[in-house]
Amino acid sequence: MVDALIEIFRLIFSVSFILTVITASTPLLLASSGELVVERAGVLNLGIEGMMIMGAACGFAGAFMSGSTLVGALCGIVAGAALSAVFGFLTLGLAVNQVATGLALTILGVGLSGLIGAGFVGEQIVQAPRLHLPVLTDLPVIGRILFGEDAFVYFSIALIIAIWLFLYRTRAGLILRAVGDNHVSAHALGYPVLRIRMLAVLFGGACAGLGGAFLSLSYTPFFIPGMTAGRGWIALALVVFASWRPGRLVAGAYLFGAVSILGLALQPLQLGVPQQLMNSLPYLATVIVLVLISRTRGTAGSAAPASLGVVFVPDR
């Protein structure tokens, strides 16, 4: 038993495991960052899974036909934003229920991605290039971790920093949070509530699309239907787990990323635990986190935007 624990600790703190965690966490961080902004604006978008799989399909198609990872990433962003525009039109323009629309959007995204990606199943592309600085990347232990990742990883970190600065250090961020907390008062002060929310929804869709594109361009440089494997739902749970705060979102994304690959990493140790149970760890962790948060509603609930999910129809 002691030997097994030593092997587990050695594995968890190895460079290869840390690198795998960073890779597995990046799509979660990208998608949940966009959703955090959306929910801060008072909109609940449950269609992240559909946007991510659309980003994966369109991103791979764009990269395969153009031979450029950058073009593929842009295609993923556009695909996610386009699907979120449909969501915004229905929920903001027509005041349709946000929960039902988000679920329908997920189903639509899964179906469309299967249609778009049908001709690319089995094809492969060159994996997104990784940074290599002759001196820094070759440093022991930290070199490969800090200076050997691809552009998606560095962009995800820069994105969460930019979101934090935007929300807490700019007037526009203060207005967006005001819209999410009390859209009636924000409207009375003359702020365009629907326009602000629409821009937030488009931004969230673009981030989800980029997270999906990362899966097919860097994580696994090929496309298969359903390759998001529920990551969109985990990203939704992450926003709640982080109490709608960007700093906590980073910790949550990397924690869930570690849990998602733990089962695969521990498989060679032959611990006697069924592999199916190990594969279910990230989803089990999601359920446990949501249950714990629901039991502390006084803390977690107070952090949620007061107008989250509430339909706003301006006075005419």
Secondary-structure blueprint of this entry?
Elements: H1 2-12, H2 15-40, H3 48-66, H4 69-93, H5 98-117, H6 142-147, H7 151-169, H8 171-181, H9 183-188, H10 193-219, H11 231-241, H12 246-266, H13 275-279, H14 281-295, H15 297-303
Helix pairs in contact: 2-7, 2-10, 2-11, 2-12, 3-4, 3-5, 3-10, 3-11, 4-5, 4-10, 7-8, 7-12, 11-12, 11-14, 12-14
Shape, per Cα inertia axes: globular
Biggest beta sheet attributes: none
Rg measurement, Å: 20 Å
Uncertain runs are none
Q: Roughly what percent helix?
A: over 70%
Strand tally: 0
Count up the helices.
15
Which class best fits the helix and strand makeup?
mainly alpha
- Arithmetic mean of pLDDT: 88
Order of helices and strands: HHHHHHHHHHHHHHH
- Strand-residue fraction? under 5%
Question: Gap between N and C termini, in Å?
Answer: 70 Å
Provide a brief overview of the structure.
With 316 residues, the protein is an all-alpha fold.
What distinguishing features does this structure have?
316 residues; mainly alpha
Could you explain the architecture of this structure?
The chain is mainly α. It has a domain at about 20-130 and about 140-230. Helix content is about 70%, strand content about 0%. The chain contains 15 helices and no strands. The protein has helices at about 1-10, 15-40, 50-65, 70-95, 100-115, 140-145, 150-170, 170-180, 185-190, 195-220, 230-240, 245-265, 275-280, 280-295, 295-305. Helix 11 packs parallel to helix 14. It is globular. The chain starts with a helix and ends in a 13-residue tail after the last helix. The model has no long low-confidence stretch (mean pLDDT about 90).
